Amino acid sequence: MRKLENSELNRLTIEEFKNTDKIPVVVMLDNIRSLNNVGSVFRTSDAFRIEKIILCGFTATPPSKEIHKTALGAEDSVDWEYFERTEAAVNILKQAGYIICSIEQVEGSVMLPDFKIEKEKKYALVFGNEVKGVQQSVVDLSDYSIEIPQEGTKHSLNISVSAGIVLWDFYKGVKGER
Q: Which of 2, 36, 109, 138 has CB 3.0 to 4.6 Å from 147, enough for a Cys bridge?
């Protein structure tokens, strides 16, 4: 095996990325403290051609040196919006026909492998604060709460890790590969 050079990876330009079809998924970041986590979610969203990211509350927005450090330019390729209140963004997306899924451990949550992803539907995935998770008021507005199965002692994943797991699963589901 030979490690591929960057020039062999057939990367899209930012303009090509902006004009290519995206999977019908919007990522919502609900009061994320770490700019490195925000940057990481941008980079993962670029990798899986997510429609856009909505940054809410005190979640930082580009341009930012700290976001760029982990996004590596994905903050320029992935469309994003800012909302002061996560609930307002959720309501707008609901009116636009998105299914709202909080990624959170709650009563009645659906385990990620058991969640049926329908290719023809549009989804908004809400990821919450590193300490407090998704706000209860946002969980209350959600159509589903999806939980990532965990078997260790912590039952807590970093938000960027959670986003990577869930976005990969939705990417496969929308492509019909799950």
A: 109
Element (H, E) at 92: helix 86-95
Query: Which CATH number characterizes residue 119's domain?
Result: 3.40.1280.10
Q: Name residues whose C-beta falls within 8 Å of residue 125's C-beta, 6 or more positions apart in sequence.
A: 25, 26, 27, 28, 101, 103, 146, 163, 166, 167, 170
Segment 111-155, tens digit of pLDDT: 999 999 999 999 999 999 999 999 999 999 999 999 999 999 999
* Structure token digits, residue 154: 């912590």
The rounded Cα 30 to chain-centroid distance in angstroms is: 11
In a domain, 8, yes or no: no
Domain annotation covers residue 48? yes
Our CA dihedral for 128, 130, 132, 137, rounded to 10 degrees, sits at: -10
pLDDT in tens, 44-80: 999 999 999 999 999 999 999 999 999 999 999 999 9
Count up the domains in the chain and report the number. Answer: 1
Q: How far apart are CA 91 and CA 87, in angstroms?
A: 6
* pTM: predicted TM-score of the whole model, two decimal places: 0.96
